[in-house]
Amino acid sequence: MTKLIATTAVGLEDIAAQDLRDSFGLPAIAGRNGAVSISLPGPAPRPEVIDAIKTLNYWSRSLNRVGIVLCEGPCPDLDACYQLALSADYSSLIDSDQSFAIRPLRKGHHPFTSIDLGRAVGQAVIDSVSEAKGKRLAVDLDEPEVILRAGLHGDEFSLWLDTSGDMPLHCRSYRKQHHPASLMPSLAYLMLRIANWTGGPLIDPMCGIATIPIEAVLYARGIPPGRFRTGGWAYERLRWLDPSPLPSASAEAEAPSPLVAPGSRLDILGIERFDRHLQGAWLNIAEAGLSDELRIVQGDAADLESVLDDSESYPVAVLNPPYGRRIGSRGQTEILYGRFCQSAQRSGIRRIVVITELLRAMERSLREADYQITAQHPVMYGDLSAVVFVAEQA
Ligand SMILES: C[S@@+](CC[C@H](N)C(=O)[O-])C[C@H]1O[C@@H](n2cnc3c(N)ncnc32)[C@H](O)[C@@H]1O
To answer: Are 36 and 22 in contact (CB under 8 A)?
Structure first.
């Protein structure tokens, strides 16, 4: 049995697991701390496991990384982490002349640092391989051939081999222009899934550099995010795995089908108030080769009627408004939420899926505009604790 770990937005593990089951037919189970697990029969070098690794790295929209679990279990202290890592078998996955690095991630209160964790687990890997093969693995923290990730959440320890790399899958290289408060593309996609969006008219009324609209087109058209990856994947440096970056023919054939028929028109609109973000959105859209697929206009989300003409109707809005931290003040942001929700109601937006940290303000704004909140998904966004609200016109 090989256990894969797929990482995603913390809090949306169940949505990502459902996506992997639906899109790839994989037996994905939601875990905690942003982890989804996939258990496959046989050892890692089996073709089914290799196909799953390549397919997920190339096609998945909701994931940040994909790895192979080497060991996991409760570890109350650093020595327990060392002992568990020492007991894992690295022989079939790492050649003894390859360099490696441990990337530690520690959450919770511990009497040691993440660096201590990395050092202890790194020593365990070196000791284990020395014992099995009589050779000492070289450590290269800058450009390792093999990346191992050591996670310690409270006393839950896991060590896994990263097949994606230091650049997570949510870093899409179509993003040439950045935004101080941009959304992770993987989270944008998960919000589209939460919205049950099936390819119909869609509006993002505060679109920034157009992450949600771009991810919507990729999803609707069945365009793999891997097509935009520069720098490859970590699995290409694993010697036991055929390094070709694309999934094998069978996995490619099983790629998730597009939401819309080829040649059919998409109606996806992004609105952004500020010129510099608008320019960034257009540049990113051009970089993704999607200039003919999307309409991004300058306008005010608090006055949608002045942007939309009478013939236009957008039943679904997916958005990531400001939280009043990096952009604007909290008071102004709360007023914006209220005015946006009122305008959305008048403009016939029936379903709103919105992520925010200002929970009370968004709840109040949605209710005052006669939207009924039908679901709330808590999500950690960096260090921010946010909620994805789903609201339907009452
Ligand atoms: C959190 S950012 C959205 C980021 C976006 N999801 C992305 O990934 O690029 C919120 C955006 O709303 C825009 N905004 C603020 N007030 C607005 C308004 N009244 N109408 C339209 N856009 C507005 C901001 O300029 C900012 O780009």
So the answer is: no
Please tell me the distance between residue 179's alpha carbon and the centre of ligand 1 in angstroms. Answer: 9
358 lines ligand 1 (CB under 6 A): no
Shared domain check, 207 and 64: no
Cβ–Cβ under 8 Å, residues 325 and 286? no
90, 194: one domain: no
- On whether the pTM is more than 0.70, the answer is yes
Asked whether residue 298 falls in the same domain as residue 369, the answer is yes
Residue 300 sits in which domain range?
A: 185-227+235-393
pLDDT tens for the chain, residues 1 to 394: 999 999 999 999 999 999 999 999 999 999 999 999 999 998 878 888 998 999 999 999 999 999 999 999 999 999 999 999 999 999 889 999 999 999 999 999 999 999 999 999 999 999 999 999 999 999 999 999 999 999 999 999 999 999 999 999 999 989 988 898 899 999 999 999 999 999 999 999 999 999 999 999 999 999 999 988 988 999 999 988 877 766 666 666 667 889 999 999 999 999 999 999 999 999 999 999 999 999 999 999 999 999 998 888 999 999 999 998 766 688 899 999 999 999 999 999 999 999 999 999 999 999 999 999 999 999 998 788 999 999 999 8
**How far away, in angstroms, is 301 Cα from ligand 1 center?**
9
**Alpha-carbon distance 58 to 28, whole Å?**
17
DSSP string, 7-72: E--TT-HHHHHHHHHHHH---EEE-STTEEEEEESS-TTSHHHHHHHHHHHHH-SS-SEEEEEEEE
**Distance between Cα 312 and ligand 1 center (Å):** 21
Closest ligand 1 atom to 321 CA: 10
Helix (H) or strand (E) holding 221: helix 211-221
Residue 277 CB coordination number (10 Å): 24
Q: Which residue owns the Cα nearest ligand 1 atom 8? A: 182
Q: Is the CB of 209 under 6 A from ligand 1?
A: yes
Distance 384 CA to ligand 1 centre (A): 17
Tell me if 363 CB under 6 Å of ligand 1: no
Q: How many domains does the chain have?
A: 2
